[in-house]
Write a structure and sequence with these properties.
Elements (H helix, E strand, L loop, with lengths): L1 H17 L1 H4 E13 L4 E12 L3 E7 L4 E6 L5 E4 L3 E8 L4 E10 L5 E4 L2 E4 L21 E9 L3 E4 L2 E8 L2 E7 L11 E4 L2 E6 L5 E6 L7 H5 L2 H12 L8 E6 L6 E2 L4 E5 L6 H7 L2 H10 L6 E3 L6 H19 L1 H20 L13 H19 L1 H15 L2 E3 L1 H12 L4 H8 L6 H8 L3 H10 L6 H11 L5 H11 L4 H13 L3 H10 L8 H5 L7 H14 L4 H8 L9 H12 L8 H10 L7 H13 L5 H10 L5 H15 L2 H10 L5 H12 L1
Parallel strand pairs: 1-10, 16-17, 17-19, 20-21
Antiparallel strand pairs: 1-2, 2-7, 3-6, 4-7, 5-6, 8-9, 9-14, 10-13, 11-14, 12-13, 15-16, 18-19
Helix pairs in contact: 4-6, 4-7, 6-7, 7-8, 7-9, 8-9, 8-13, 9-10, 10-11, 14-16, 15-16, 15-17, 16-18, 18-20, 20-21, 20-22, 22-23, 22-24, 24-26, 25-26
Bound molecules: zinc ion.
The site of zinc ion has 4 residues, from helix 6 and helix 7.
């Protein structure tokens, strides 16, 4: 009974909370933030203006573990805090505007990260209220004007336009201004050693592109097509970019591919690539996706998670369109086909999800959402679709939206109800695969592709002519399909086709050979070796490994050829090379110690998680665990990026099952700080 009473009380209180929207409208936050890297702490002064909508005696800001220091209010508002709120208490009158100021400090456990000489934030899913009292609810949009204090040698990026930088002792105060309101999850800042280049959109919007000084040669490939994407989206969406400027910043050990903070997208360093890396892992899709969110998500924001596809489905859809503009129709249809295949598989397993559903997976929000828009465009026609999107954005700008708000606008312009569309695409769990394929088949490329992919079960003798024809000026994806169909076929038949595929000079067709022809036959050796020079780090890595295994007598030759190649941001080729060099008997014996030290060094916290993950993998294969690498592993097991933390913990757990390593780790406890020691103690007792 008591439990019941508590539950009742709790739900009543929550209800009151969610109704705060009707009581108060927060208008502006002006905050001076001073992050402290060594103490992992934030100190700040903040001023809040708000308008009371209904007479009441208390309102709150979300504020997680924030310690209030000084408070100030002209209107005699009492200000106090508890574990997750700052409370403002007074005899508030309707239609009156108030203001409060307070200083505080916080040691954020999430939403603000101190890593490798950078400080950056992530609001979505983590709550800005961990470092800045704000609203976890998306429905009250506020104008945030931040000033950030950072040491003189650092660069600061946050929402809005930079007003001024002023010197304050050993620090610089970076003062920014936002003109329009946004939801609190879109507030963000980054501090680091960054340089920038600024380009201007066709419409005159300044686009600031940031990079680390050591990545200056990667600047061009990383940001290739940025201006084109911006101009394309502005024209396609039909509404000018809604904010003062746009900035993009690659941050160290980021949690996601990218995050669309208003005017300041942060993205993963994994997308900082050179020209070769561009062919395999470019930033184009994420670049367009995050930019599209500046309209879909930031300008119009979901009222609640149920309508999340209004963010992710739209961003995915417009990113597909931007890629179509850049890479062409075939690439576009291929990606739509891949996404349809994934959705169909999920649906066939009986795991299809309704799109308008707060619990849906990313695949549903992103890809099914994009498909819904693609089909809707087909049903109503491009002109109606564009007009409706424009109306929807104009009508609801700087406000919150639901699925109905969007559909209503489409129905208005279309002049008819969209009953079937809503049933099939928004509220049905199964994926309408037939309808999707009927649409895809209109692409001549997809048509050709289906003609080849349908031959998968046929023996090579019966299809050899068709495959051979497909290799004359092969399309990227059809060519790859042909190569994959050669797998396991008798070499007598397949060798001439492989030769033809090599000669195609198509990067992706040749990559398919590197990835599927693992045991290299003597008669293809010459051609296969040319893969080591292809402009793809995926191809180079696979080809190096396969040649090294297939031709033991030439191991040294291959190693010499690939020495010094780094690969992607995660140093995939360099680390694989070191691994192979150590496995090659008598290869540069005088350098073995250096090789070992180099692999070990990559596991340290000076490197990004993707570098470290590969280093741990090879350290494990080579059984090179020592004090240094074990300490790095304990550190990695507490990393803020959960995937890396998880994979590191799994390795640590395995090592702890071995008596010797267990002993060694116990001895190492004396070198650990308290947090790490407590963590290791827990792991030892598990
Ligand atoms: Zn997104």
């Amino acid at each position: 009974m008591r439990i019941f009473f508590f539950i009742l009380l709790f739900s009543l209180t929550t209800n009151c909370f969610s109704q705060q929207l009707e009581t108060v409208d927060f208008i502006r936050v002006e905050a001076l933030i001073r992050p402290n890297y060594s103490e992992k702490k934030v100190s700040a002064n903040a001023t809040y203006s708000f308008k009371i909508l209904q007479k009441c005696d208390s309102i709150f800001l979300d504020a997680i573990n924030i310690k209030l220091l000084n408070t100030y209010s002209e209107d005699k508002i009492e200000i106090h805090s508890n574990k997750n709120k700052v409370w403002l208490v007074s005899n508030f009158k309707a239609n009156k505007t108030y203001s409060v100021s307070f200083s505080y400090e916080a040691f954020p456990k999430r939403a603000l990260y101190f890593t490798n000489n950078q400080i950056w934030t992530q609001g979505q899913g983590k709550y800005t209220s961990n470092w800045l009292p704000s609203l976890d609810d998306m429905n009250d949009k506020i104008e945030f004007d931040l000033s950030i204090l950072a040491s003189v040698d650092m660069t600061v990026i946050t929402n809005g336009r930079l007003n001024a930088i002023t010197k304050l002792d050993s620090l610089k105060n970076w003062n920014f201004d936002m003109e329009k309101p946004m939801s609190s999850y879109l507030v963000a800042f980054a501090i680091g050693d960054f340089k920038k280049n600024t380009v201007t959109s066709a419409s005159g919007v300044p686009i600031e592109l940031y990079y680390r000084p050591q990545d200056s040669l990667k600047f061009e490939p990383t940001y290739r097509y940025t201006k084109k994407i911006f101009n394309f989206l502005e024209a396609e969406i039909g509404i000018p970019f809604p904010w003062q400027n746009y900035k993009q910043v690659p941050v160290h050990d980021f949690l996601y591919a990218g995050m669309e903070n208003t005017t300041a997208t942060f993205f993963s360093e994994a997308f900082v690539v050179d020209s070769i890396g561009f062919s395999d892992r470019n930033y184009v899709n994420v670049n367009a996706h995050e930019l599209a969110h500046q309209w879909f998500g930031n300008l119009v924001t979901e009222t609640e998670g149920t309508h999340h596809w209004l963010h992710e489905g739209f961003a995915t859809y417009y990113a597909h369109l931007a890629e179509k503009e850049i890479f062409g129709d075939d690439y576009y249809y291929w990606k739509m086909f891949q996404s349809a295949e994934q959705l169909r598989a999920l649906s066939n397993e009986g795991k299809g999800e309704v799109l308008v559903n707060s619990k849906a997976s990313s695949l549903t929000f992103y890809e099914k959402g994009a498909w819904a828009l693609y089909i809707l465009n087909e049903i109503v026609g491009e002109e109606v679709f564009k007009k409706a999107v424009k109306n929807y954005l104009e009508k609801h700008q700087f406000k919150n939206v639901s699925t109905d708000d969007f559909i209503t606008e489409v129905e208005k312009v279309y002049g008819r109800e969209l009953t079937d569309f809503k049933k099939d695409w928004l509220y049905q769990s199964a994926f309408k695969a037939e309808q999707a394929y009927q649409s895809l088949i209109k692409s001549p490329f997809i048509n050709e592709y289906f003609k080849i992919s349908v031959l998968r079960g046929t023996s090579l003798t019966l299809k050899i002519d068709e495959l051979e024809r497909a290799l004359v000026f092969p399309n990227d994806f059809i060519g790859q399909e042909v190569v994959y169909q050669l797998e396991g076929a008798p070499l007598l038949l397949s060798a001439p086709l492989y030769k033809k595929a090599f000669l195609s000079n198509n990067l992706y067709v040749r990559q398919a050979i590197a990835l599927s022809l693992v045991k290299v036959p003597e008669e293809l050796k010459f051609e296969y070796e040319t893969l080591l020079r292809d402009e793809s780090y995926v191809t180079q890595e696979a080809a190096m490994g396969n040649l090294w295994v297939s031709f033991p007598e030439d191991k040294t030759k291959y190693l010499d050829l690939m020495d010094g190649v780094e690969g992607f941001q995660d140093k995939n080729i360099r680390q694989f090379w070191l691994f192979l060099a150590l496995l090659t008997e008598n290869y540069k014996p005088e350098k073995r110690v250096d090789f070992i030290n180099e692999i070990k060094q990559y596991s340290s916290s000076n490197f990004g998680h993707s570098v470290r993950e590969i280093s741990f993998e090879y350290t494990g294969y080579l059984n090179m665990w020592d004090d240094e690498t074990l300490l790095n592993l304990v550190n990695a097991s507490q990393h803020h990026y959960w995937r890396f933390q998880k994979s590191s913990r799994e390795i640590l757990k395995r090592l702890l099952e071995d008596e010797n390593y267990r002993e060694q780790l116990i001895l190492l406890r004396k070198d650990l700080d308290t947090t790490s020691d407590n963590f290791l103690e827990r792991m030892l007792n598990e």
